[in-house]
Amino acid sequence: MKKSERLELIKRIVLANTIETQHDLVKLLQEQGLNLTQATISRDMNEIGIVKIPSQNGRYVYGLSQENGKRISARPTPIKSTVLAISDKLPGLEHMLHLDVVPGNSRLIKRLLLNDFAQQIFSLIADDDSLLLIAKTPSDTDAIRQQIILWMTPQD
């Protein structure tokens, strides 16, 4: 199977099923005759733009980011609003921000931050549910913090 076909199959499976873990997706792909490693699945999900989103019952499931055209419910959650918390301004750490995000969304948030603030960012490190941003100047940090706070503000 070609990579493009594999990515399309993963997308179809995510759209058609409630998937809470990558292991669940691996099992569904095995039922389709694909035996992939978790690392390959993770890379494919990142490339497609699959992220954790809140479901109708309040649990987080995999779905496509709104930026990729998937409408999860009548009122989808914008990806930028999956930032849960941002660090306060602290003495000695004026160049740094720490973000807590919904698990599985940090890579997409990282991409959005780099798109919006590439000139102000010195470094940006992401794991599954958090990011550490090091800005070039304290004023860059302040500007980025203010924009992220706007992302976190519910929009009506």
Q: What would you say this structure looks like, in words?
A:
The chain is an alpha+beta fold and 156 residues long. It has 2 domains: 3-68, Arc Repressor Mutant, subunit A; 79-152, Gyrase A, domain 2, CATH 3.30.1360.40. The chain is built from 5 helices and 6 strands, in the order αααββββαββα. β1 and β2 form a beta hairpin.
Compact overview of the structure:
Strand 1 (50-54) and strand 2 (60-64) form a beta hairpin.
Q: What is the overall pLDDT average?
A: 83
Distance between the termini: 43 Å
Using only C-alpha atoms, the radius of gyration works out to: 17 Å
CATH architecture of the largest domain: 2-Layer Sandwich
- In N-to-C order, the SSE pattern is HHHEEEEHEEH
CATH topology of the largest domain: Gyrase A, domain 2
Strand-pairing-aware structural class: alpha+beta
Please tell me the total number of domains: 2
Strand order of the largest sheet: 3-4-6-5
* Biggest beta sheet summary: 4 strands, antiparallel
**Outline:** elongated
How much strand content do the residues show?
15-25%
> Which CATH first-tier class of the largest domain would you pick?
Alpha Beta
Ranges where pLDDT stays below 50 over 5 or more residues in a row are 69-76
What is the number of helical segments per DSSP (H or I, 4+ residues)? 5
**Helical amount:** 25-40%
Q: How many β-strand runs?
A: 6
Which labels suit this protein?
Arc Repressor Mutant, subunit A, 156 residues, two-stranded antiparallel sheet, Gyrase A, domain 2, 2 domains, alpha+beta, 5 helices, four-stranded antiparallel beta sheet
